[in-house]
Amino acid sequence: MSDVTFLKLPLSDFCRAAGLPRNIVVAMVDADIITPIGKGQHNWRFDIDSVDTANRAERLHHDLDIDWPGISLAMSLLSEIYELRENNEQLRKQLQQ
Q1: Whole-number mean pLDDT of the chain?
Q2: HSE of 93 in the Cβ direction (CA atoms, 13 Å)?
C-alpha cells in the first residue's frame, strides 16, 4: 500500500481535486455521501478515494436531477448490489470446484 492511500485532504484541497464548489461538498457531507475526518469544516480531512465518490454523486445529481439524500440512498444501494454480485460470483466459483 502506498503513502498516497493515506493522504488526507483539507476541504479546500478536496474541492479543487474533485472540481466541486465548497457548498456542494458540504451538501454531500450533510447527506452522508462522503465522510470527512474531523469536527467542523476548518478541521475536515478527506480520503483521496472520496474524490471519486463525490464525482459519481455529482454526476447522478446533474444527470438525473436527484436530491442529495436520494443520491446517498442510491449510492448505498448501488454499493450493496456490487457487493452482492461479488459474493454471488465467489459462490459460483466455489460451486464449480
Answers
A1: 92
A2: 6
